[in-house]
């Protein structure tokens, strides 16, 4: 699924974001960036009603046009075509929290240095929960993806069985959030990961995740 020794595609080898491997994904990253910006503008812009209605009509034209193109519903549908890369490459683009071509993703970048996983994410105002701070569900989602990717270094990638987050102080919006995680223990198919999230050098939340290697390969679970 993810081969950390693959010299051609290992998105976690360094802090540098792995470039898109096809023109299609380069185009989709651009689309995602515009939509990500629109997400933030949708919750922050203070334009007139007329302006909002006019721009919404413009966007509806774009959405209706894209809706006429063929679609692939889910990563495995993209894999099946054979034209979009392997599962790891497609997941790297489309993942809900870490995908560079997914406008919902809060720009999570992950890299591994030996046994330690590092990451950075940034949540704009569409991720607001308490006033001025990141919604706790998004903090948990970032940990889920971050710890989930960090555990693949252990060689037995699993699905989240449980995730416990301790919210120590509110996590600020529009701030680089740095992440760090290490494997706490691994017993058979079960791996426990522990991590922390920092903003401005202060820990805002810690998390512990239990990941369980499924009995069947992950790619076959959807079938
Ligand atoms: C590389 C991919 C990384 C992906 C990271 C992204 C993070 C995600 O979002 S994953 C999505 C969220 N998670 C899920 O949807 C998982 C849904 N659950 C499942 O599919 C299954 O319950 C799964 C795979 C976790 C375990 O199923 P299965 O392998 O059949 O478990 P089973 O054989 O019954 O139990 C194995 C062991 O784990 C324990 N266990 C199982 N489920 C849990 C759980 N939820 N919490 C704690 N322990 C559990 C069992 O007690 C057992 O322990 P022991 O061996 O000591 O008796």
UniProtKB/TrEMBL annotation:
It comes from the Bacteria. Coiled coil: none annotated. It catalyses: (9Z)-octadecenoyl-CoA + H2O = (9Z)-octadecenoate + CoA + H(+); (5Z,8Z,11Z,14Z)-eicosatetraenoyl-CoA + H2O = (5Z,8Z,11Z,14Z)-eicosatetraenoate + CoA + H(+); octanoyl-CoA + H2O = octanoate + CoA + H(+); tetradecanoyl-CoA + H2O = tetradecanoate + CoA + H(+). InterPro entries: HotDog_dom_sf, THEM4/THEM5_acyl-CoA_thioest, Thioestr_dom. Its EC number is 3.1.2.2. Keywords: Apoptosis, Cell membrane, Cell projection, Cytoplasm, Fatty acid metabolism, Hydrolase, Lipid metabolism, Membrane, Transit peptide. Its main location: membrane. It is found in: Cell projection, Ruffle membrane; Cytoplasm; Membrane. It is a peripheral membrane protein. GO terms for cellular component: cytoplasm; membrane. GO terms for molecular function: thiolester hydrolase activity. One of its GO terms (biological process) is fatty acid metabolic process. Residues 132-201 form the Thioesterase domain. Signal peptide: none annotated. Belongs to the THEM4/THEM5 thioesterase family. This is Acyl-coenzyme A thioesterase THEM4. It comes from Parahaliea aestuarii.
């Amino acid at each position: 699924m993810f081969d950390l020794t693959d010299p051609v595609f290992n998105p976690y080898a360094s802090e540098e974001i792995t470039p898109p491997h096809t023109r299609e994904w380069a185009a989709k990253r651009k689309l995602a960036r515009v939509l990500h910006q629109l997400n933030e503008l949708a919750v922050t812009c203070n334009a007139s009603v007329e302006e909002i209605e006019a721009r919404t009509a413009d966007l509806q034209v774009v959405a209706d046009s894209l809706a006429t193109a063929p679609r692939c519903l889910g990563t495995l549908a993209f894999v099946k075509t054979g034209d979009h890369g392997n599962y790891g490459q497609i997941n790297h683009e489309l993942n809900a929290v870490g995908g560079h071509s997914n406008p919902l993703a809060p720009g999570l970048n992950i890299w591994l240095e030996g046994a330690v996983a590092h990451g950075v994410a940034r949540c704009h105002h569409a991720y607001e929960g308490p006033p001025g701070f990141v919604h706790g569900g998004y903090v948990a989602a970032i940990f889920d993806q971050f710890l989930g990717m960090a555990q693949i270094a252990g060689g037995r990638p699993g699905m989240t069985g449980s995730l416990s987050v301790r919210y120590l102080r509110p996590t600020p919006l529009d701030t680089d959030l740095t992440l760090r995680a290490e494997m706490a223990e691994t017993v058979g198919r079960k791996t426990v990961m522990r991590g922390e999230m920092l903003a401005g050098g202060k820990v805002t939340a810690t998390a512990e995740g239990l990941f369980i290697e499924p009995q069947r390969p992950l790619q076959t679970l959807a079938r």
